[in-house]
Amino acid sequence: MTEPARPGAPPGNAHALTHGGTSTAQIVRVARAQKRRFLAQNGLRAGELSGIARALLDNYARAQAKVELLDRHFAERGLLDEAGEPRAATKVYFTALNSARLALVRLEENLSKREGAGPSLADIHRSLGLIDADGKPIVDVEPEDEDDGDC
User: Fold this and answer.
1) How many domains does the chain have?
2) Total Cβ atoms within 10 A of residue 13
3) pTM of the predicted model, to two decimals?
4) Burial of 140 (0-12, 13-18, 19+ CB in 10 A)
5) What distance in Å separates the CA atoms of residue 24 and residue 64, rounded to the nearest whole number?
6) Better pLDDT: 82 or 135
7) Residue 7, in any domain of the structure
8) Quick one: which H or E segment has residue 7?
């Protein structure tokens, strides 16, 4: 199935991309890197995974790829447009973020059921930089300047 192109842009024209979060070609490329990173960070090989675990890894990687592509887009352009409204891609972003989270939980559950139990969810989150050594979430957000004015 081909993606709808921007008017006048030939199919597969990377110059017509806005953010890549809905581009199959971009998602597949980034998802491949996500899979490799996940396997390496957790000391696993693709051949060690069951068919279900490979499918779950693919689900996670594709959703996380969308998150990564949209993170880049929002880092360049901001989450809000010039009028202060959320950009259209925001809906896709939060859907992908939730899908990646759920896929990661399912993948961890599947890996922990196999012989010799794989890495725990905490280990996976730690290796992906989502929590620190104490299990506390790592929030990668710049602190806002405090406003000393009256509210």
Assistant:
1) 1
2) 11
3) 0.63
4) exposed
5) 13
6) 82
7) no
8) none
